[in-house]
Amino acid sequence: MIEVQHLTKRYGPVTAVNDISFRVERGEILGFLGPNGAGKTTTMRILTGYMPATAGKAMVAGFDVFDQPIEAKRRTGYLPETPPLYPDMSVAEYLDFVAKVKGVPSGERRQRIQQIMERTRIADVATRLTGRLSKGYRQRVGLAQALIHNPDVLILDEPTAGLDPKQIIETRELIKALAGDHTIILSTHILPEVSQTCQRVVIINKGQVVAVDTPDNLTARLRGSATMYLQVDTSGADAGVSLARLPGVTRVVESDRRDGVIGYEVDSEQGRDVRREIARIVVSSGWGLLELRPMRISLEDVFLSLITEDEAATPAATPVEQEGVTVHE
Amino acid sequence: MSNIVAIAQKELKAYFASPIAYIVIGLWALMYGYFFVALMNFFVRQSMQMNQFGMQGPQAMNVNQQLIRPLLQNVLILILFLMPMVTMRAYAEEKRSGTIELLLTSPLTDFQIIVGKFLGAMALYGCMLAVTLIHIGLLFLYGRPEWKPIVTAYIGLLLMGGCFIAVGLFISSLTRNQIVAGMVTFAVFLMLWIITWIGSFSGPTVDKLTQYLSIVDHFDDFGKGVLDTTHIIYYVSFITFGLFLTAKSVDMERWRG
Fold first, then answer.
1. To which CATH superfamily is domain A224-294 assigned?
2. How confident is the model at residue B232 (pLDDT cuts 50, 70, 90)?
3. Where are the domains of chain A?
4. What distance in Å separates residue A257's CA from the closest CA in chain B?
5. Are B101 and A80 a contacting pair at CB < 8 A?
6. Fold for the domain defined by A2-75+151-220
7. Contact A73 B13 (CB under 8 A)
8. Which phi and psi angles does B62 have, rounded to 5°?
9. In A23, A75, A257, B152, which residue has its Cα 20 to 30 A from A150's Cα atom?
10. Residue B166's beta-bridge partner residues?
């Protein structure tokens, strides 16, 4: 449904997006994750036809956004970071205007606006001026605006930014419910959002794609080795040496110690469960087993490790790589 | 076409939803009314003097020549002051508030957006001109002016206002600051108005050139009741060129990001 190939965007000397490629299948929700300034908004603006790319190609619903912008835009709904509202218009007037310019036939317009207002729960403010609305309502009017022409593709730039927790959950539910009929790209820098709403994640940093995968795979990938947290009461004795000697254990780190109770982080080989061995050695040594649990790796860790890895690896190589891209294009 | 109408309607609504339309039309009506009264007094005094010098009878003064023509020429000054207020927000405001993202990501061409905005501003200008018809109507009530030169004068006013609007739109598309847009527009309008002043001292070539460039000079014939295609073509090309520059400026902004 959406296909991005070797997309590059430069603002003068600054490269905002550097040779990124990804695909989104019909009905999928793709999360676009990255720190501020990573190039999320730029990529979305290119996809929506707001600005052209310096190099590369982007297809939306089978239409090239640069060569057939009108056709592509007809099939795209876009919610920019700040909802594009005219403060002097009422919500109903505003949606009517958007419906007109998005090409909703005049016969269906009224009904369509009603439907969308109910779906995004803004029917109660239909006659209020958009400039007087609270942040939450504005965001929802923005979402209504993106949905009004029933587009195949929805591009949402930080749709939950500035909402309160209840509204965030409601908005996420709405986005999930929209998935089947629409293909959705949503950008965010909030990690739980991605694991909760998206089927796939593209992590981008400094204009480059760092990883594309499902949230689960990404977490699994980082967990090259599984880590257990173990808390034992040894009355002061060091358990580290005997733990490290266990088969399958690759590393033992003491993480905390208090009144003879010591906490260890025990790394083991991937796919090998060492919990039984650990329990056995603790019991046979006469220590008290207080806690033994696998340490969950959150998407947050994945994210941080990916972007720090990236930072450590790139500085020297960056200029050369960029040259390579230019030549390649 | 329906897209252009939708944009134009939106623009006109925006003028009337904000204080701009009321302030512009109000000031316009006030100042125009003042000009009308002042010129009317002058006209009445002159015709009374002519009566005293024994020129009674059929040789009454010509209302068209002596009153309506100078009146409509004074309107130019009002346009100079008020039109920047009409056009300054056209693009600058959309850029500042981010609504330009909505327009540029909607299935609209730049041409449709620009022409829509142009027609929206023209419609407001039309409302302003409609106010002046009241005064002209009063003249018809008490005198017998000829209607044909009045029609040509209004055609001229519309075309000339269109030129100012096209320039104003272009300047508004260059910035996201309304105040900057308004001030630059005012300066440019002023230049276009006084450009002929240097002409008379600088030799025949410059004189001709400045006269040709002066939007205001081309209005003269319309005021006299002459519909000269040279001037019509001049105005239409001027408007087209202004809108073309606007289109280029919007496009450039898009590439620059």
1. VP9 protein domain (3.30.70.2070)
2. very high
3. 2-75+151-220, 224-294
4. 55
5. yes
6. Rossmann fold (3.40.50)
7. no
8. -80, 115
9. A23
10. none
